[in-house]
Known about the structure:
Number of domains: 1
Number of strands: 9
Helix content: 40-55%
CATH topology: 2-enoyl-CoA Hydratase, Chain A, domain 1
Strand order of the largest sheet: 1-2-3-5-7-9
Order of helices and strands: EEHEEHHEEHEEHHHEHHHHHHHHH
Radius of gyration: 20 Å
CATH class: Alpha Beta
Shape: globular
CATH superfamily: 2-enoyl-CoA Hydratase, Chain A, domain 1
Number of helices: 16
Strand content: 5-15%
Amino acid sequence: MSASTAPEPASQPLVLFHETPGRDGRRIGVATLNSPRTLNGLSLAMCEPLDARLRAWQDDPAIAAVLLDGAGGKAFCAGGDLHGLYRSMLDNTGAAAWDNVYARRFFEVEYRLDYLIHCYRKPLVCWGSGIVMGGGVGLMMGASHRIVTETTRFAMPEVSIGLFPDVGGTWMLGRLPRGIGTFLALTGAQLGAADCLRLGLADRACRSSDLPELHAALAATDWDPDPQAHGAQVDRLIDRLSADGAAGAPGPLQTHFEAIRRACDRADFDEICAGIRGWDGHDDPWLARAAATFAAGSPGSARLGYTLVQRARLQSLAEVFRQEYVASLHCAAEGDLREGIRALLIDKDKSPRWRPATHAQADAQWVRRFFRRPWPEGQAHPLADLGA
């Protein structure tokens, strides 16, 4: 989840759906996130129809493949509905985590949508051009075919708003080379196409101008009678579109890969914090920015993100989504998320007052509160059926 600006006019369709005719009666389902003013930030009003349409296309034998992209040219999806969450938190100030009905609904619908994409039974191509952050990462990382371009800016920047890398982000980060996922969770460092490919966060690199050609190629494909072969057909199609050099030169994460691993592949949270602080003023602006973002971010979010990434290494995807759901509801009640959104988007003073105020105060005992189930005794987890 990341920053969003003012919402689109109410009359504007927030997700556009159409079906492109293909060969032999096949069709291509195309879903376009259509909120360019918010950089296609996901709202509940976007997640619900997108989930419903993806399920319908999955069950329609005439749909050979699905393409997911974003309108406006600047972003695939820059995050989630921070304004809506902020209003819900103001309405529930001082209340228990389970009392925020909007947060309960939003996180459940968003996480179910993300899980659906991970388990999708048809080729699902995600055009991850431009900004891909927070909720956009949640949509992209589960797709069977993840495309980045020279404009891709991929990050999980939640430490700056008092949240953590949710939408399955802790599962993704926990499966990166040791130390790398922790670094990305604590610093919100941005990755370009080359670094995404290096880490396995994307499958192919194309030019940002190639989207119309991708549409046309999908429509012109002679689809195999066996649906199980369609994924391999999409592989070959994208291979033909992939552009030499589209990913650019090796990215900064590749340049500093071993240094980051040495600093962040540690069992002691305080040692990791000290290592990241050591890059303050580094000669490479990318690493210096990572250190500055960490220093300015929520200490509680850093501890929570670190803890969740560690736990996720031993959990299934469904278990991770259930764990993140609990932690997200507590974030909506604890205060830092509300304060982070206020400082970034509402008052825009960029001076959040974090509680706890230091990384030392955000210790292992403090973080335990985020793992207590907030719903009434005897009630099942709202995501209990994931993976069933």
